[in-house]
Amino acid sequence: MKKKTSAISKFYIFLIFFFLYLPIAIMTLFSFNSSTSTYVFSGLSLHWYSEMFSNSAAMDALKNTLILAVVTAVVSTVLGVLAAVGLFNSKLRLYKKAMMTATNIPMMNPEIVTGISMMLLFVFAGMLVNKTDVLGFWTLLIAHVTFCLPYVILNVLPKLRQLDIHIYEAAVDLGCKPVKAFFKVVMPEIVTGIITGLVMSFTLSLDDFIISYFTNGPSFQTLPIYIFSLTKKRVKPDMFALSTLMFVVILVLLILMNVTQSRAERKGRREER
How far apart are CA 239 and CA 249, in angstroms? Predict the structure, then answer.
């Protein structure tokens, strides 16, 4: 009975992954299609990859997306680490619970609600300073940091809870300044959580459409919004090529993140022995 249940579970998991990755596999295949057809494969060709790099509008949108994602990841990681350390060191339980609830709201709140509310906030702030074209890079950055920040905090906090705080206290007692002790003692212990939060912030910012749609302006267009604008007409396979490259980059980042985490865990086990 157990073997039968195990076989059914494995088959069910296989079906989930099959339907999850089949569209990506088809998109990747047709990015190498020699014709413009999106349903008949005519032969292998790199034509659409060269076409993609010659598309100035797509390249500008990609550049904007990468700049926004990198800045969002860095800002979210710095603020997230500071917030996680502050919450960890706080002695007030009620304050901790309130802050954790506030941290979870951007993740639980529907993206369309977050996007519309932030757009209204930015427009209202622009009215206060008599500025009409307030939406742009900075509003996008604030919006992206807002929904990426909780993921950094929730990745760093567990690492801080696993930390033996007595080591940090011993370093301070032996004359090490608190900031130096943090970077020498605490940082190596939580670096895997920081890297995970950094990569998650980068990928979430890179992928976001709904919140970006409501908080961006005409002067700064991200790639998801550019691709959405193409749905009003026929999408050419050069967008398949661009999406494939983005998927490969994210896949490589996730592999590197997992390798880094596994190495850190093995190092931690060796040190414990």
Answer: 15
What's CA 38's distance to the chain center, in Å?
A: 29
pTM of the model: 0.81
One digit per residue, the tens of pLDDT, for the chain of length 273 reads 566 667 788 888 888 888 888 888 888 888 888 777 777 777 788 888 888 888 888 888 889 999 999 999 999 999 999 999 888 888 888 888 888 888 888 888 888 998 999 999 998 888 888 887 888 889 999 999 999 999 999 999 988 888 877 788 888 887 788 888 888 888 888 888 898 889 889 988 988 889 998 998 888 888 888 888 877 777 777 788 888 888 888 888 788 877 877 776 776 667 666
Q: Measured on CA atoms in the order 228, 230, 234, 237, is the torsion positive or negative?
A: negative
Which residues on neighbouring strands pair with residue 44, listed in sequence order? 33
Quote the CA–CA distance of 215 and 123 in Å, as a whole number: 9
Tokens, residue 104: 């979870």
